[in-house]
Design goal:
803 residues; alpha/beta; five-stranded antiparallel β-sheet; five-stranded parallel β-sheet; 32 strands; 23% strand; disordered N terminus; disordered C terminus
Length: 803
């Protein structure tokens, strides 16, 4: 809703125009004119173009505009004087004279919500009469200039009696009333006594609970560091998150805020507490280095101090789209996002990581879920109930058309999740949610800020006045990534604390209120534009499978991979931002593919191996080009059942260090000669095959021959011949001693048998070597022992491995 001056004629013409539309258009024109006036004059053709644009904007600006910038106090009470301030703008090309600013009011309260919204938006003119206070005169007002004004009026002059919201209009005109403008102010009135108004009650304070969100867009992918550096500005002085934290900290105790925090935000800010990288490619290259952010550590510290003693619940990591994941069956991912977020945020917020049911102690996270947009179907509740989440925040559904209720029911009810579990359901007020979601909340214009805060106060008073005897709690949920001006955020919480018809309440106190039974169902199924597309989430599920496989081989596991997937599934991308989720999906998929491509086995696609027999060994190489160790195994498949290739240890898992390789040996056994193709693939420790590397699996072409067997037969035959020859010689030496003539011939000329034996003994003596001229050249073996081994010893026989 935008603050601006509105003419009475325009208000009649626009009776059925939506409240925010025309107000915002006129304010935009007014801001455009002020911006143009601040520009320097540009020479030449550029100056001509600027003047043409200026003339066009001047033609669109209102000739006279009155704007209210504050009402103090913001509600009326007996015995008070109210000060109303604002500015008066002359949009004509000449000076305006004899201007006046006066007040109009009515003694009849605004009857219902619809009339309140239309009156505040300037599309409904109610029956009002001049207030008996002297008009403020403005002698002259130069062209394209504005002037501040202030009027003070006793509440008694407004003649108000019953609790309710009353119309008050600031009216400006020239003397001839040819130029007029007005700005409406919905003014709540709080009677001095509870029973002062016959037939109407002054309500007891209504419980009101605020959810204060600290949620941002995902800023991290699979690579170390951040995708962008916009978070630095947001947590810095004057940034969105810095402002929300400052305002929330100031009112945390008095307004009893309930904090909703995204663990991904805490994680990303923690990354900035040390030197970090920004903007790397999918291969983690090309990043820009940044020093540690000076405000990151203090911002995290402030979050802890601001939330101490207050109710805190965390969204699933990256605030994933709960409805979308539940709708398209990725329940495991949804549960993992909740668990991962709780385990990360708990220690950082100095709380137990296991959430407790509402009301939780100040040292525990609260088991609360807040689906995006407050929309949920039965699948969503069923999943949340299965995760022991007992409280769900949803948008307040519309009442059935046949309902005759004249008031808005309270915020507390319950709903079964479809499998028998009853969940506590807290319903956000629809009017307040719409107001806080309007673009006007981001404006820094004093008039716009006042209009939003004043309408918030009037909406709560109207809610209480509809059925003042029925204490119905109110739940306020701003947008998840709310970006209000600091002034507006402070004004809203200040009004919450000070309004006498409101009583700030924690979410635990809210949940303890009696349940409403006016809603036939609290479920509002998300539409196509209210959740991530199913086509995207199905692709994410396929990617998630590969991520899980990659993590299973990492030493240690990297949680950043799962968190990158959660970032793709974030509710931030619901609606028109869905293409951004698609780009993040592509980026993460490329990263995962690159990781698997960094692992390979062998040096060539096909290796030919020829065995000299049926038994042998093959050495292969497992290479790891990644920045971390991996644990992998080998899967061996043979095309021929007669050839078996085995590892030393069945299903062995090898740890391959980063940027290195290992060379395991495989045993080959062939039952018969022939050829076989053996395929070697890498697998995870659980047996799941890894994606094929770029050069495909390694194949071994193994040929088993009879060469080793033939060689063994030849050696055995030679050995047998040698043994037989030796045996024959031994037999000859073992015959009876021949006669003297034969003995003399064997001993040599002139010798006898005893001399020959003595000579033999002398030659065998190790201490008396035989002279060379005593060797018998015709019988070289004559000097060896008859018991010496014939042939090679057992140790020199060929083994199975050498055949």
């Amino acid at each position: 809703m935008c603050a601006m001056a509105r003419s009475h004629a325009a208000s009649h013409r626009n009776r059925h125009v939506p409240a925010l539309g025309r107000a915002c258009v006129t304010v935009a024109a007014l801001v455009a004119v002020l911006s143009v006036l601040a520009l320097p004059v540009i020479a030449g053709s550029a100056a001509s173009g600027a003047r043409a644009a200026l003339d066009a904007r001047r033609a669109a600006s209102p000739p006279l505009a009155v704007t209210v910038t504050s009402v103090s106090p913001s509600y009326a009470a007996p015995g008070q004087k109210i000060t109303i301030k604002g500015r008066l703008w002359n949009g004509t090309a000449s000076t305006m004279r004899d201007l006046s600013v006066s007040l109009l009011s009515s003694t009849a309260p605004i009857p219902n919500d619809t009339d309140l919204q239309e009156f505040a938006g300037g599309t409904l003119q109610l029956s009002e009469v001049p207030v008996s206070v002297s008009p403020l005169s403005v002698g002259h007002l130069r062209s394209r200039h504005s002037v501040a004004w202030s009027i003070r009026v006793p509440v008694s002059d407004l003649r108000l009696d019953c609790f309710g919201v009353y119309p008050l209009t600031v009216f400006a005109s020239n003397a001839a009333q040819s130029r007029t403008s007005s700005d409406p102010v919905p003014l709540p009135f709080w009677p001095g006594k509870a029973a002062i108004c016959p037939g109407a009650l002054r309500p007891s304070p209504f419980p009101i609970t605020w959810v204060w969100p600290l949620i941002d867009s995902p800023h991290a992918g699979p690579c170390p560091g951040l995708l962008d550096n916009t978070l630095a500005a947001s947590i810095g002085t004057g940034g969105r998150l810095a402002n929300l934290l400052d305002v929330g900290r100031n009112y945390a105790a008095s307004a009893k805020l309930t904090w909703a925090i995204d663990p991904a935000l805490l994680d990303n800010v923690r990354t900035m507490t040390k030197p970090y990288q920004v903007g790397s490619s999918a291969s983690c290259l090309g990043a820009t280095s940044h020093p540690a952010d000076g405000g990151a550590k203090s911002w995290l510290s402030d979050v802890v101090s601001a939330t101490t003693g207050q109710t805190v619940f965390v969204t699933p990591y990256a605030d994933v789209d709960v409805a979308g994941l539940a709708q398209f069956g990725n329940n495991a991912d949804l549960k993992k996002a909740f668990t991962d977020g709780e385990h990360l945020a708990g220690p950082m917020l100095r709380r137990n990581t296991n959430p407790a049911q509402v009301p939780a102690s100040p040292r525990r996270l609260s088991a609360i879920a807040w689906p995006a947009g407050g929309l949920a179907n039965s699948e969503v509740l069923e999943n949340l109930g299965a995760m022991d989440i007992g409280t769900v925040i949803l948008a307040m559904p519309a009442l059935p058309p046949t309902s005759s209720l004249t008031f808005t029911p309270g915020a507390v009810t319950s709903q079964f999740d479809g499998v028998g579990t009853k969940l506590k359901v807290l319903l956000a007020n629809g009017l307040l949610s719409s107001l806080l979601a309007s673009k006007a909340t981001s404006s820094t214009s004093p008039g716009t800020i006042f209009n939003v805060s004043q309408l918030y106060l009037a909406d709560t008073a109207m809610f209480a006045g509809q059925a003042p005897a029925m204490k119905r709690p109110i739940l306020v949920t701003p947008p998840r990534r709310w970006d209000p001006s600091t002034t507006l955020a402070s004004d809203l919480l200040a009004d919450t604390v000070s309004a006498p018809w409101l009583a700030p309440s924690s979410i635990g106190q809210l949940a303890a209120q009696p349940e409403e039974h006016y809603y036939s169902s609290v479920l509002t199924p998300p539409g196509r534009d209210s959740e991530l597309p199913g086509s995207l989430l199905r692709k994410v599920s396929a990617l998630d499978t590969k991520v899980t496989l990659l993590q299973s081989i990492m030493n240690p596991k990297d949680p950043q991979l799962s968190r990158a997937v959660f970032g793709i599934e974030s509710s931030r991308w619901v609606g028109q931002a869905a293409p951004q989720a698609g780009r993040m999906l592509t980026r993460t998929a490329r990263f995962v593919h690159g990781q698997f491509a960094g692992l390979s086995i062998g040096g060539r696609q096909t290796i030919h191996v020829t065995l000299g027999g049926r038994v042998g060994t093959v050495t292969v190489s497992i290479r790891n080009l990644l920045n971390y160790p991996v644990s992998v195994g080998l899967r061996v498949r043979s095309s021929n059942d007669t050839v078996a290739v085995t590892q030393k240890v069945a299903n062995e898992v090898y740890v391959v260090p980063a940027h290195s390789s290992i060379e395991p040996k495989l045993s080959v056994n062939a039952a018969q000669t022939g050829k076989a193709t053996v395929t070697l693939s890498l697998r995870a420790p659980n047996g799941t095959l890894l994606p094929d590397p770029p050069d495909k699996p390694l194949t071994l072409e193994i040929s088993a021959t009879n060469l080793g067997t033939v060689a063994l037969v030849i050696c055995a035959a030679a050995l047998a011949i040698f043994v037989f020859a030796s045996a024959a010689q031994a037999i000859r030496r073992g015959r009876p001693t021949p006669g003297p003539a034969a003995a003399g011939a064997e001993a040599g000329e002139g010798g006898d048998a005893g001399d020959a034996a003595a000579a033999a003994d002398h030659r065998d003596s190790p201490t008396d070597p035989v002279p060379a001229d005593n060797v018998d050249s015709d019988n070289p073996d004559a000097g060896r022992s008859e018991l010496s081994t014939a042939g090679p010893g057992p140790a020199s026989l060929p083994t199975e491995e050498s055949r």
